[in-house]
Amino acid sequence: MKIAIASGKGGTGKTTVAVNLVLSVEGMQLFDCDVEEPNCNLFLGQELEKVEDVSCPVPVIDSDKCTLCGKCATFCRYNALAALPTGIMVFPFLCHGCGGCGLVCPEGAVQEEPRVLGVVEKGKTTAPLEFYRGLLNIGEAMATLVIRTLQEHIDASRPAIIDSPPGVACPVIAAVGNADYCVLVTESTPFGFHDFKLAVEVVKLMKIPFGVVINRDGLGDSRVEDFCRAEKIPILLKIPNDMRIARLYSEGIPFVEEMPGWKEKFAAMFKAIESGSESGVMNA
Amino acid sequence: MKICVTAKDKGMDSGIDPRFGRCAYFVIVDSESGSVNSFENTALDASGGAGIRAAEAVANLGAEALLTGSVGPNAFSILSEVGIEVRIGIKGTVADALNAYREGKLEAIDSPNASAHAGMK
Ligand code: SF4
Ligand code: SF4
Known about the structure:
The complex is a heterodimer.
Chain A: E1 2-6, H1 14-24, E2 29-32, H2 40-44, E3 48-61, H3 71-75, E4 81-84, E5 87-90, H4 100-104, E6 110-123, E7 130-136, H5 143-151, E8 160-163, H6 170-176, E9 181-186, H7 190-205, E10 210-217, H8 223-231, E11 235-240, H9 243-250, H10 255-258, H11 261-275
Parallel strand pairs in A: 1-8, 1-9, 2-7, 2-8, 9-10, 10-11
Antiparallel strand pairs in A: 3-6, 4-5, 6-7
Helix pairs in contact in A: 1-11, 5-6
Chain B: E1 2-7, E2 25-30, E3 36-40, H1 50-60, E4 65-68, H2 73-82, E5 85-88, H3 94-102, E6 107-108
Parallel strand pairs in B: 1-4, 4-5
Antiparallel strand pairs in B: 1-2, 2-3, 5-6
Helix pairs in contact in B: 1-2
The complex binds iron/sulfur cluster (2 copies).
């Protein structure tokens, strides 16, 4: 079972939920798909090793064969090619590696070479959990490619937690898209609520069953709860706005390690999601 | 020599537009023949790489000098590849920009003076 942890905006506690959840259930895998800012390991402190490079095929123009017809540049919707009087100029940073320019070139003048734009890493310790993360090089745009490559390492025979990037853009769709369940983490503040509703729309469109974790509960008002009740969205867990939790967070310690009662709560949430009985979890 | 000015509209009396990739028109003036031709900037609505498309168009129109306000790194690499002289600091109308250029009042740049996506709103 693949469970994605997502949120409409950053800083709501997505990573906290992901990390504490994997530490509460035996034999989990964790995939940090927030490839522009992978944070999970701040709390896990694992030694990492490279698993593979993530690269995108970019065109290289053979100027001996190229007749400067310009078909490749006209085709490229990402404007990664410029047809100039002096030759074709390639802007590799903008290329999405679709291969289309090579297909439309009548002269066979387009070759490809891989350009590395990120990396997949793995924690050296495999117990009690297996940890993978993706890292997109600074200035690169293709987060989705790193996320897809990262997700190829999911072992389908074991539960996997996917820490999604914040927001509702393409990388989130890539991270959450093939999950069996999505946990939306939010705070009950006006800003949090706005982004939360956007995230709800997106998971509904993707037709992925989902539930909600309210973080820093007690801060703000009851608008998220009221909304969930009206929309029949299960509230899976409430994490209180607690000084101790905040302090452990700032020290990079997953709070389930110091506050063991919480392991059971996270484990119960997982069981409920797994068995499909989550709609009753905390809703009473 | 063909000189390109980035403008809001067609012709010599049009107001200039300082944003290279996102201007509406390129007004090309031939300093020898005095002919004036205006070309729509089709890159205007590009979601990314507008500067590349714009620089490609200006290069293919045969301009040798570009008078504008700001040029990002991708566009600049094209302009310098093709050897187009880039001058910035234009104000007023296309005619004003040309006069300022003739009088040597426009600053020449040899590196981009805007970041990529600077013209996006
Ligand atoms: S591979 Fe696709 S995105 Fe890359 S330059 Fe060619 S057409 Fe553009
Ligand atoms: S399509 Fe092929 S021949 Fe035409 S400009 Fe591009 S690389 Fe050259």
